[in-house]
Specification:
The structure is a single chain. By secondary structure, the protein is an alpha+beta fold. Helix content is 24%, strand content 16%. The strands form two sheets. The protein has a three-stranded antiparallel β-sheet. The protein is flat and about 135 Å long. The chain starts with 6 loop residues before the first helix and ends in a 31-residue tail after the last helix. The model has no long low-confidence stretch (mean pLDDT 85).
Length: 206
């Protein structure tokens, strides 16, 4: 059956009429803050204590917008007679958000969970040079990172938690004192005291 001429136009106008009768809902930003999804990619927060200056994030960044400076510091031996060790100390950690394309590769490759997505998005600047934020600003954004979602109650226990729990149980069992062995030489039996095995001589026996 051939379509009726003008039916498509009538359907489009019907949709337009239905939309016109609905109430328009406009979020009054900035007076009313938007409700962002929990996995919003706003800015990148830095948890400085976890950073080991491994440079993986800077090497894997496709835009080369992460700038890291560090120096080596000698650590005294932990035990007498041990040797000194050196560790990297973070001096600068900056991200140029004018170049960042929010791919999240730096967060994925970080082996020590030092970088996190923050839903913060109000960081516009009038000068593009001010979009390079240093570690102090990245640390402030760290406190706006939402908490991780709760684990599925039906999911298996993570291997790391299971291994830590087993180790804790073994240590607790080893720390408990063993029950003292009972000294049976001075205790009687349930039937009564121990019988006297010494035999008295009969009459006429020497």
């Amino acid at each position: 059956m051939a379509p009726i001429p003008g039916s498509g136009l009538a359907k489009g106008l019907a949709v337009t009429l239905r939309t016109m009768t609905r109430k328009t809902v406009t979020e009054q930003y900035p007076d009313a803050q938007p409700e962002l999804p929990p996995r919003t990619r706003g800015v990148i927060g830095l948890f400085e204590e976890n950073c080991t200056v491994c440079m993986l994030c800077a090497r894997e960044c496709p835009d080369w917008c992460i700038y890291i400076d560090s120096h080596k510091e000698t650590v005294p031996p932990a035990t007498p007679g041990g040797r000194e060790r050196s560790r990297n100390v973070l001096d600068r950690f900056a991200i140029d958000f004018s170049l960042c394309m929010y791919c999240g590769i730096c967060i994925e490759v970080c082996p020590f969970d030092a970088l996190f997505w923050s839903p913060e998005f109000e960081y516009a600047e009038t000068d593009v040079r001010n979009l390079t934020h240093e570690r102090d600003k990245l640390r402030e954004w760290m406190w706006t990172v939402p908490a991780p979602p709760a684990l599925d109650p039906g999911a298996e226990e993570p291997k790391e938690i299971a291994a830590a729990r087993k180790s804790a149980e073994k240590l607790a069992a080893a720390a408990q004192p063993e029950p003292a062995a009972q000294d049976k030489s001075h205790t009687g039996t349930a039937a009564g005291p121990e019988p006297d095995t010494t035999r008295k001589p009969k009459e006429g026996e020497s």
